[in-house]
Amino acid sequence: MEPAGPRRRRRGARSSDRGASRAFRWLATGAGALILILLVAVAVFLVIKAWPAISMPSDELVEKVGLLRNSSSLLDYVGPLIFGTVLAATLALIFAVPVAIGIALFTSHYAPRRLASTLGYVIDLLAAVPSVVYGLWGALVLSPIVQPVWAWLNENVGWFPLFAGKVSPTARVLLTVAIVLAVMILPIITAVSREVFLQTPRLHEEAALALGATRWEMIRMAVLPFGRSGVISAAMLGLGRALGETMAVLMILSPGFLYSFHILEAGQQQSIAANIAAQFPEADPLGVSTLIATGLALFAITLVVNVAARAIVARRKDFSGAN
Fold first, then answer.
1. Which residues contact 108 (CB under 8 A, 6 or more apart)?
2. Where does the pLDDT of residue 184 fall: very low under 50, low under 70, confident under 90, or very high at 90 and above?
């Protein structure tokens, strides 16, 4: 018969493990609930602060707020800002995603281990560069370099709406901003995509190669389908960063308040975040409420983008690394 001492010690250990498990469960639940509470708190704050501008009649608001002097209503003011924000972020995503996927595939399946490690480290370092540095680089270095390219596009492909209009001599236009934003979101998309590609089951890759597939065919049949949802999630993370970027856009773009697809012409578009940063210091209380109303619109756009991305990932999780 087993002595009572060891039996009591095992019971005490099991009781201690159950207590630790219960404490960890409550801690994890509290952390998850805290995120939801913070999200709701931000939404409530934005609604309360923006309510004076939202609830005021349009004619009275336009009369009292200098920001709206060229607008007929709050919606007329917010609309072009939403358009410029979404257009810049979409262009940045179009530029960044193919490059990020290529880098992720190279570092995960083509490059030697030492080179892949070094390249991955360099790419990750791009995420640590402050946005104001990207803004300075875009305004002082990139703009003079791309100006002849934009002029060539306008001259030879000007029939396409995006490249029509009068080319800015300073190149401080939306297309330059989109390139800078693409560089800024590149590390996020690359890092997440690389980790997803590395999670592809080894047996799937070896089976494709054993059937006679080339390296590219193996990637196309095994790696890319497995990582599709992860790449979508990475792209949405990058899109969220691009939508909310402030300093780089503020320092590069020559702003305007138009619904314009002329991305080579100055004074056409502006983003919500950059407009808030530019107008906030001189705004009166009602003007601040108006700017916060535009911030509420940006919050709603970001929320919709993330919900849509989550729906896409959930729909494809059975065929990817998301499950």
1. 116, 194, 197, 198, 223
2. very high
- Would the pLDDT of 96 be above 90? yes
Amino acid at 179: I
CATH of the domain at 63: 1.10.3720.10
Alpha helices in 106-128 (DSSP H): 113-126
- pLDDT computed for residue 256 by the predictor: 86
Same domain, 222 and 203: yes
Pick from 110, 111, 311, 321: nearest CA to 224: 321
Residues 6+ apart with CB under 8 A from 257: 70, 71, 77, 80, 81, 270
- The pair of three-digit structure tokens given for residue 247, joined into one six-digit string: 């300093």
> Helices marked H in the chain — which ranges?
4-55, 58-64, 74-105, 113-126, 131-137, 143-156, 174-198, 202-210, 215-218, 224-244, 247-252, 272-279, 285-315
Into how many domains does the chain fold? 2
